[in-house]
Design brief:
Blueprint lengths: L13 E8 L10 E6 L5 E3 L25 H4 L13 E5 L5 H8 L3 E6 L2 H9 L4 E3 L12 E7 L8 H11 E12 L4 H6 L13 E2 L2 H9 L3 E9 L2 H14 L7 H14 L4 H16 L5 E8 L2
Parallel strand pairs: 4-5, 4-7, 5-6, 7-8
Antiparallel strand pairs: 1-2, 2-3, 3-9, 8-11, 10-11
Helix pairs in contact: 7-8, 7-9
Length: 302
């Protein structure tokens, strides 16, 4: 494992033991230390995992890699991009291809990259052109894209600098990168810390805020054209359930962790009252830059 003594992005001093995190979905004996940059605010797993460990973080039950009944119908009107350039779309981390298929149906030229073989098979069954691997080994040649989309992907990347340098090279003139990612400056993270649903150790290696996202752009030939934070009562509810059922810390025993996580899954239920109560809080926090998610548009520097 690669233990860092300074920030991965900007090289500034760090708060080494910022928090201890646990896998709240799939029981495992390991704990995970996260550090925080004192300058740009990047929160990152430290030590960083080795590349050969990453596949083990995503068991077969990991939901983004599974096809869900009604997925296409439920999301058919969501995340449709406005026409841009020649409408060439590349989605990095496309999962089972729902967004690609929606854009393909309305005339976009679409391609995807996905590291999970089972998800890639679902994409191919849908007739989608998807590379099973990473953006760095995708056979894209001299192709250019008008929109490159990262939907809750950059927090999973072990080498985001290399990936975003490659994405910058693939942008067409006037092209843009659109990304969604958890916000390290969110009110929910400040409130729930290790029980924050979006921390999702060990799958989320880097948690960005506006400052650290700018640091990533500075190193990869990009700049932020627009950024805002988005509210999510769902993330608050899930975090509340984690804290209530599992607590801030987990017992050392793997069997105890299994019991806690199983109990938490069994009792998970929607709380319309809690979400209704939190809705105005989430809306205000998002306006103040403390929403649970960041949405940013990146373009090449001139």
């Amino acid at each position: 494992m690669n233990k860092l003594s300074q920030c991965y992005l900007c090289g500034a001093p760090i708060i080494d033991n910022f928090l201890t995190a646990y896998d709240r979905q799939f029981p495992r004996v390991e704990d995970y230390n996260y550090s925080k940059c004192r300058s740009c605010g990047l929160v990152f797993m430290n030590p960083l995992p080795l590349p050969e460990h990453l596949a083990g973080f995503y068991p077969g039950e990991y939901s983004p890699h599974q096809e869900k009944p009604g997925d296409m119908k439920r999301k058919s009107k969501r995340n449709i991009f406005s026409p841009h350039g020649s409408n060439r779309l590349l989605e990095v981390g496309c999962g089972i291809g729902s967004l690609l298929q929606r854009h393909n149906e309305i005339g976009w030229k679409v391609k995807g990259v996905e590291i999970n073989p089972a998800a890639c098979e679902i994409c191919r069954a849908r007739g989608l052109d998807v590379h099973c691997g990473t953006l760095l080994d995708a056979p894209l040649g001299d192709e250019k894209f008008d929109v490159i989309f990262f939907n809750h992907v950059i927090e999973h990347l072990l080498d985001p600098v290399a990936i975003f340098k490659k994405a910058s090279e693939l942008l067409a003139p006037e092209g843009r990168i659109i990304l969604l990612t958890p916000n390290s400056g969110s009110m929910g993270f400040g409130r729930y810390r290790s029980a924050w649903y979006h921390l999702d150790a060990p799958r989320h290696i880097f948690i960005y805020g506006a400052g650290s996202l700018k640091g990533l752009c500075d190193r990869t030939g990009l700049k932020i054209a627009g950024i805002r934070t988005l509210p999510s009562t769902r993330i608050w509810l899930q975090s509340e359930n984690i804290e209530r059922m599992q607590g801030q810390t987990l017992a050392n025993s793997l069997e105890e962790r299994k019991k806690l996580i199983r109990s938490s899954a069994d009792t998970k239920k929607k709380s319309h009252f809690f979400r209704l109560l939190m809705s105005p809080v989430c809306a205000i926090s998002a306006r103040l830059g403390a929403g649970e998610n960041l949405r940013a548009e990146l373009v090449k520097t001139k």
